[in-house]
Design brief:
By secondary structure, the chain is an all-alpha fold. It is built from three helices and no strands.
């Protein structure tokens, strides 16, 4: 009877470990990703820049104001999008590495 209890506890600990590793690890990385993206948004304001893309810069309604404003905002949107994409790809890579650690360790253990 006590052997079943011990096996049950061991099984529960294994399940809780995998829940902690994968689910809680994903939640932590997602929260950190959102923190980084909010910090980037304070600097680049990508959605606001796209929203006001065709508005003149500094309320200068001359041709130069429109021309410079659109050019500046297009460049800012492009650079901001590239930065957002790179940060997103880095976080996806980090999560994939995080997911691959346990299978890699199990593979190395079984191989030796």
């Amino acid at each position: 009877m006590w052997i079943l209890y011990i096996l049950k506890i061991i099984g529960l600990k294994i399940v809780l470990f995998f829940k902690h590793w994968y689910v809680d690890g994903f939640e932590f990385l997602y929260r950190y990703f959102m923190f980084v993206m909010r910090s980037l948004d304070r600097e680049w304001a990508l959605l606001s820049t796209i929203k006001y893309l065709f508005k003149p810069l500094y309320q200068d309604y001359s041709f130069a104001g429109y021309f410079i404003g659109i050019g500046f905002r297009l460049l800012r949107s492009f650079v901001g999008s590239i930065i957002y994409l790179i940060v997103t790809l880095v976080f996806v890579f980090m999560y994939l590495v995080w997911c691959g650690v346990i299978p890699l360790l199990i593979f190395k253990f079984l191989k030796s």
